[in-house]
Each structure stands twice: as structure tokens, then as C-alpha cells.
Amino acid sequence: MAPANDALPRLRELAEEAATHAYAPYSKFSVGAALLWDDGVTVTGCNVENLSFGLTSCAERNAVFRRISERGAGAKIVAIAVTNPAGEMCAPCGACRQVLHEFAAPDAAITYRIPGGWATRPFAELLPDAFVMERRN
Ligand code: THU
User: 108: CA distance to ligand 1 center in Å?
Assistant: First the structure.
């Protein structure tokens, strides 16, 4: 996790910037995410809401899907930043944790907004016993 930690301050800035693009007229809760991949590429995402509320798509998943859409699925995520620009608690939801897990390196780091600052931890701590299938077709 050590090398990725150096990238966290810049990733936080990129996540803040991404959150300015959020489309969140219903919740008024903007979220930005920035992902650093092991090929050095950084990808951002923001939440995009919908009048049919259940169709809302989170910032973290939008960032993952953007990366896969643009470059395919070869690389692993080594660092993640998630923020709400108002400084409110902003840990990734359970669905986003599982989607991030699919592409996260075993030692990936995550930093996310907590009141008054940021929490930084190994991503693995956020999803113990993630869903996996030993048998893959
Ligand atoms: N949201 C995210 O973008 N990421 C999360 O991990 C949790 C929630 C968004 C969805 C919705 O637009 C707003 O935050 C309020 O739930």
C-alpha cells in the first residue's frame, strides 16, 4: 500500500473536481471519485441521478465503468479517493464496494471524506469476505 499512498493527495483533488460535475438535483449530495490504476492512469467519476430514483448511478461505479469502457479490463485499481465537497461523510456504498473489489489490487488504498477530514485505510478492510466465486465459468 505504501507507493499508492503518495498519490492520495492528488487523487483527493481530482475527486473534488469530479464532484463539481455531479448531477444530483434530487438528493443535493454531490459525490466525486478518483481511481489510480496500476498502469498509472487516473480515472474520475461523479454521481448521476435520475427522476426515477433507483436508476441513479454512483460516482465510484461510474469511474470504474468509464475506465473499462475506454481501455478494457486489464489493469488493477491501486488507490481510490471519494468525496463530498460539502465535507460530509462519504464512504462508498455497499454496491460500489463490490464493484471496486472486482478490479482492486489486494493492497489497494482508499481515502474518503469523514467530518473534518479524511479516513485512509486498506480497501480490503471495507469489504471483508467479498463475494467471490472460486469456480469461474
Ligand atoms: N452516492 C455515490 O455517488 N456514491 C456512493 O457510494 C453512495 C451514494 C450518491 C448516490 C446519490 O446520487 C447520492 O449519493 C445520495 O445517495
Answer: 21
User: Tens-of-pLDDT digits for all 137 residues of the chain?
Assistant: 445 789 999 999 999 999 999 999 999 999 999 999 999 999 999 999 999 999 999 999 999 999 999 999 999 999 999 999 999 999 999 999 999 999 999 999 999 999 999 999 999 999 999 999 988 66
Catalytic residue, from 60, 88, 102, 134: name it: 60
Whose C-alpha lies nearest to ligand 1, atom 6? 92
Q: Which residues contact 26 (CB under 8 A, 6 or more apart)?
A: 49, 51, 53, 56
Q: How far is CA 24 from the centre of its chain?
A: 17
* Ligand 1 atom at minimum distance from 26 CA: 12
Sheet holding 32-37, edge to edge: 42-46, 32-37, 77-83, 104-114, 117-122
Q: State whether the Cα torsion 28-10-96-69 is positive or negative.
A: positive
Class of the domain covering 2-126: alpha beta
